[in-house]
Amino acid sequence: MGVTEPEATFSACFGSAFLMWHPAKYASMLAEKMDAHGAHAWLINTGWTGGAFGTGTRFKLKHTRAIVDAIHNGELERAEYETMPVFGLRVPKAVTGVPSEALMPRNAWVDKELYDATLGDLAVLFKENFEQFQDGGGHLQMDLSAHGPA
Predict the structure, then answer these.
(1) Residue of 23, 67, 98, 143 with fewest CB within 10 Å of its CB?
(2) How far is CA 63 from each of CA 56, 58, 75, rounded to the nearest angstrom?
(3) 135 is in which domain, residue-wise?
């Protein structure tokens, strides 16, 4: 109530107050399990698209469902991808039932300059947030900064 401009917040594993170990241990455990079982992870936008707060809209549920269906039926395994600047995420060029402009976030924004500035601001917030995890808690022996936004 009374929010006029949303603020980005970060929570390690969405429950840091309840975690016994350093978040890097959980990340390491997840990576090991995924490698051992050949599992894939997918990041799906279920939030905001098309512009900053006040101009954009919620990502359509029917598009989220179509993306989940494409994961389940193997369509995304066979898809062509392009790389999202700054974060380096691989984004499918097409998904059945989803407009192509909804897939690459920049394409959904009318104001491309504002999108670029917002993306840059978000990258800075990610980098600042991950500084607290650089030691890896003795569990993750990698430079996290090499795996975040460019």
Answers:
(1) 143
(2) 16, 11, 14
(3) 39-147
Token pair of 109 as six digits: 């924004």
Q: What is the mean pLDDT of residues 125-137?
A: 74
Predicted local confidence at residue 18, as pLDDT? 80
Spatial distance between the Cα atoms of 128 and 18, rounded to a whole number of angstroms: 22
**Model confidence at 10: pLDDT above 90:** no
- Three-state DSSP at 49 gives strand
Indicate whether 80 belongs to any domain: yes
Helix, strand, or coil here: 145?
A: helix
Residue 133 · residue 22 · CB < 8 Å: yes
pTM, rounded to two decimals = 0.80
- Does a structural domain hold residue 22? no
Nearest to 93 by CA among 83, 85, 62: 83
Instruction: Name the pLDDT band for 144 (thresholds 50, 70, 90).
Output: low
The CATH number of the domain where 116 resides is what? 3.90.228.20
Provide the pairing of β-strand 48-49 with 90-92. Answer: unpaired
| Domains: count for the chain | 1
Buried-exposed string 72-84: b where 16+ CB fall within 10 A, e elsewhere = eeebbeebeeeee
